[in-house]
């Protein structure tokens, strides 16, 4: 499997940005309503999934690299939107 440098750079930047958003919101969610905590917990599961998938990208022989890229981009987009919704609701 050939690595796509554009995708690798995008993924690293996306992971850094999502980690920053996640860290900022972690403190605020402790003060939030139970509903926000529930949303946060769901996003935490998705974030863990994104991290696992990102680590397996280079070892994914059974999936095409392109499909994996599409899946990771969608998951990152969904996480970003979820974090923004929580931030806007706080």
Keywords for this entry:
90 residues; 3 helices; 0% strand
Biggest pleated-sheet summary: none
Distance between the termini: 43 Å
Number of strands: 0
Which regions are unreliable across 5 or more consecutive residues at pLDDT < 50?
Answer: none
Please state the overall shape, judged from the principal axes of the Cα atoms: elongated
Class computed from helices, strands and strand pairing:
mainly alpha
What's the domain count? 1
Topology pattern, helix = H, strand = E: HHH
Q: Which percent bin holds the helix content?
A: over 70%
Gyration radius from CA atoms, angstroms? 14 Å
Question: What is the helix tally?
Answer: 3
Proportion of strand residues: under 5%
Mean pLDDT: 85
Which helices and strands, and how do they pair?
Layout: H1 5-29, H2 34-56, H3 65-89
Helix pairs in contact: 1-2, 1-3, 2-3
Characterise the protein shown here:
- This protein has one domain (5-89).
- 81% of the residues lie in helices and 0% in strands.
- The model has no long low-confidence stretch (mean pLDDT 85).
- The protein has helices spanning 5-29, 34-56, 65-89.
In brief, what are we looking at here?
The protein has 90 residues and is mainly alpha-helical.
């Amino acid at each position: 499997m050939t690595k796509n440098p554009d995708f690798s750079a995008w993924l690293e930047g996306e992971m850094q940005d999502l980690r920053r958003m996640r860290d900022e919101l972690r403190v605020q969610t402790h003060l939030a309503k139970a509903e926000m905590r529930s949303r946060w917990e769901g996003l935490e599961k998705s974030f863990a999934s994104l991290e696992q998938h990102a680590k397996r990208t280079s070892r994914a022989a059974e999936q095409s690299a392109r499909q994996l890229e599409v899946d990771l981009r969608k998951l990152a987009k969904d996480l970003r939107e979820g974090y923004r919704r929580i931030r806007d609701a706080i």
